[in-house]
Amino acid sequence: MIAKFRVSVACCSLFSFLCAATASAQSPSQDAAARAAPAAPTAPSTPTAPAPAEPPASAPTVAPPSTPDQAPSPTEAPAASPAAQAVTTASPPPPAPQISTEQLSAFADLTDDSKTAVSSRLSTDPKLLPLAIAAADVRLRRKRTGKTLTIVGFAVLGVGDIAGTIIMMSTPGYPTNIKKENVGQVILGAAIDVVGLGAGLAMAIPGLLKMARETEVEAQAREYYSPPEPEVGEQEKRAQLQGTALTLPILGATF
């Protein structure tokens, strides 16, 4: 029994000695391999920039509702003064109208006055200038249109009369020995003569009337330039009123 115990103790001690020997043999070899292996180069560390700090979120400001008596907030744009608004909105005045020489002549013809008198009157009366320009333009246009109608009307009348007369006079045997087969030519000439006469008078007569008849614009300008004179009765009454003396007894004095 004792012998078996000794044998088991001896086996255990031998087994522990072998384990310790193998462990000591492996550790020097591992240390030598670690020393022989070159150290791996390490990459240089780059300094990292610090991240920008975010500004603290500010709470949104809500403007209180404005009242008519409340002053405008500092964030609102100040209202422009009335003087500044007047300066910004004021536009340059339009150029004054000017009357041409032709218009001046037409207006002088309308008023039966000289050009010098009309010019002096226009320079002293600014209200008369636009009326004079408008009346002169209407008068010139009316005269020009009437003259054109009159000229064209008389031209048509003359051409038709001449053409009709030539056709009639070219008829064989005109005017006494006209054969039956040539009567149609005479009738044609007479018809051309009548048509020319009617068409010519239809244009010439309105042209003459247009040149002679004044328009309302011309009448207003002429009346403004030379107002109608008072009647004879009114003149006599004014003369009597101006010639009579006014006598009023006031404290024994006569005025």
Radius of gyration: 63 Å
> Biggest sheet: strands side by side, in what order?
1-2
Overall pLDDT level: 73
> For the terminal residues, how far apart are their CA atoms?
185 Å
Biggest sheet details: 2 strands, antiparallel
Helical segment tally?
8
Blueprint of the fold:
Layout: H1 2-36, H2 82-89, H3 101-111, H4 115-124, H5 128-169, H6 183-212, H7 216-225, H8 232-243, E1 249-250, E2 253-254
Antiparallel strand pairs: 1-2
Notes on the protein architecture:
Helices cover 62% and strands 2% of the residues. The chain has 255 residues and is mainly α. The chain has a domain at 101-227. The longest helix has 42 residues, at 128-169. The chain is elongated and about 195 Å long.
Short description:
The chain has 255 residues and is mostly helical. It is 62% helix and 2% strand. Strand 1 and strand 2 form a beta hairpin.
Features:
255 residues; 2 strands; two-stranded antiparallel ribbon; 62% helix; mainly alpha
